[in-house]
Design goal:
The protein is α/β, with parallel strands linked by helices. It has 14 helices and seven strands. The chain has a seven-stranded parallel beta sheet, with helices on both faces. Strand 2, helix 2 and strand 3 form a beta-alpha-beta unit.
């Protein structure tokens, strides 16, 4: 790989607001001479951006275009070609968000999310081949690495973007798909403080747009020899405690050494029962279940009705397994949940966990009492063992 410069003219799809606009601003600081900012509406989120770029002697062209429309994309590139611009790079950053459980989405909603990302990228790929590009960036998401139950369509579209990057690379064309982690001060999360708080709890931190883009520029300027990269701020030890998937062989080479359960997050139910009593232990367990369920569903804990069936909340069998594994990791013991169906609620699951722990405590107490009485009796060891084994059966 060879170091690449970022100067020249750029087309930024989805560049009139959010992270797309921050990408334009960052490219300007790296030597871009003209920025073509394109979105469906063509409305610039920050009108002062034009003045800012004018002071830097950087040209800005704002265009409204439906990027999934071949005619509109052809017209855009015809205009760029006729302007004499030597196009250096393209950023495929167009996206819409329509988060919902897959079971709650219809085909129209799913298609709308996918087409906005994927079809726009395919159109830009097809129509830009008349230019000798240095860069063709596709904005993907770290959710492609772990999955996200409420973003099935978004994840699917991003996976296709990464596949497009690999196809272009095989054809000898520039391509780089960036799976971004959450950006806290631009785009979707900038207006969703509650969701941001959930993500911070899960990942440990979110990146600022400036930090994220500087990391990308550093890699690009030093030279890359791969078609996909992931840039995210992740506390792997914290994420592992929330996401059982990280225990799979796929992630075995990650250096996850801090905060293994026992360690920071293990909860001893028996100790809680002895110290705080049944009522307070029940409340602690229910709060923990709400937190874990909320992290799995990517919502705030306060949005969960603990008396509502898990299936009505949007849980499927895979999410139920994630809940079971996550709780077992936090409690260090088996969680008595075989299915998310049959009227299972978080309140009922709390009761089952507590009852199971109390049963274990009573059994242990009975075992200790039996052993104590047997010890007091002057009988042969073999007979003592037979009596003890029969009692435990």
């Amino acid at each position: 790989s060879t170091p690449m410069d970022l100067s020249g003219s750029w087309v930024i799809a989805g560049g009139t607001k959010g992270f797309g606009l921050e990408t334009a601003r960052a490219l300007a600081s790296k030597g871009a001479k003209r920025l073509w900012l394109v979105s469906r509406s063509g409305d610039l989120e920050q009108p002062g951006f034009l003045t800012e770029m004018e002071h830097l002697n950087i040209g800005v062209e704002v265009r409204a275009a439906d990027l999934i429309d071949n005619v509109a994309v052809q017209a855009l590139f015809d205009e760029i070609e006729q302007s004499g611009d030597e196009l250096a790079g393209i950023v495929c950053g167009a996206a819409i968000f329509d988060d919902a459980m897959l079971s709650d989405m219809d085909a129209e909603r799913f298609e709308r999310v996918v087409r906005t990302k994927l079809d726009s990228a395919l159109q830009l790929d097809r129509e830009s081949r008349r230019f000798d590009l240095k860069h063709f960036w596709l904005y993907s998401s770290v959710s492609c690495r772990f999955g996200n139950p409420s973003q099935a369509a978004y994840v699917a579209a991003n996976m296709e973007l990464e596949a497009l990057a690999k196809r272009r690379t095989k054809e000898g064309l520039p391509a780089l798909a960036i799976a971004w982690g959450p950006i806290g001060d631009a785009g979707y999360l900038a207006q969703a403080e509650e969701l941001k708080a959930v993500i911070v709890h899960k990942l440990g931190a979110v990146m600022t747009a400036k930090t994220a883009l500087n990391r990308l520029f550093d890699l690009v300027e030093r030279g890359l020899d791969q078609s996909t990269i992931t840039l995210a701020s992740v506390d792997w030890s914290r994420l592992k405690s929330e996401l059982p998937l990280l225990s799979e062989p796929l992630f075995e080479y990650l250096d996850i050494r801090v905060s293994e359960v026992g360690q920071e997050g293990l909860i001893d139910i028996h100790a809680l029962l002895a110290e705080k009593g049944e009522a307070k232990t029940r409340k602690i367990l229910l709060n923990l279940l709400c937190q874990v369920a909320a992290q799995i569903m990517r919502i705030a804990p306060g949005e969960i009705d603990v008396n509502r069936d898990l299936t009505d909340l949007g849980f499927d069998s895979l999410m139920g397994m994630n809940l079971k594994l996550a709780m077992e990791e936090r409690l260090g013991t088996a969680t008595p949940i075989a299915s998310v169906g049959d009227g299972m609620t978080l309140s009922r699951l709390t009761h089952l966990i507590l009852t199971s722990a109390q049963s274990e405590t009573h059994e242990n107490e009975a075992d200790v009492m039996a052993d104590r009485h047997l010890t007091d009796l002057n009988i042969p060891e073999k007979l003592k063992n037979e009596i003890s084994s029969a009692a435990k059966r």
